[in-house]
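hey all, quick one before standup. I had two proteins in the batch that finished overnight and I want to keep them in one place so we stop losing track of which output belongs to which input. First protein below, input sequence then structure tokens straight from the run.
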Amino acid sequence: MKSQWMLLLAFVFALVIAVFAVINVEPVEVNFFFGHTSTPLILVILFSTLFGGLTVGALGLVRVYVLQRKVKQYEKQLAGFNVDGHTDYEEVIVEDKKEAATEQEDLSK
């Protein structure tokens, strides 16, 4: 459901940008580091929007890649805890709860 809303918002945003670009068709001067040129404002708006979207998408893909690597690393680490159907991490959790209860009793005295 969330992805459908995101897709709908993306279409609305694209429509607003397209309408805004079509309204602004007069030529403008664009200055580069090495020179300048005159081009219709519609092209400047569309290419700027496209470049911004590609940049955000690329950064999002990098973040997803990093998170996937972390998940794989944690899954390997978690698999190392499982021996003969018994999980050492469950024992650690139980021990931590016992220690916390002991500390709580000491504090309440």
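OK second protein, same deal, sequence then tokens:
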Amino acid sequence: MNLIKEVLLFIFCLPSYITRFLKGLRIFSESYSQLLKAWEENERVYKSTDLGKLKDPNKTTEFVKNNRNEALRLLREHEKMFNQLFGIFIATAALIISLVALILK
């Protein structure tokens, strides 16, 4: 009886798990596209800046380096988020497989 209760609870919650995973995947892809845009903008600014004509090239160089460091930090955070999302996917898949194995047993 307890097994049936657990199976029904899992089946009832499965759409919620899948919806949350897909929502996380959408947020991940949107943030990744924004990160790529920021990275390309940073590269464009860095390449288009002529440091020899500026009054204070040190400040400009520092600004560009800070932007690049921020983009790299965001990229690392994005990779962590992807790893967590992938972990959730694997855990959900393992739960489904174990449930199917339990039912077939």
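Flagging for whoever picks this up: Residues 57-104 form the longest helix (48 residues). The mean pLDDT is 75.
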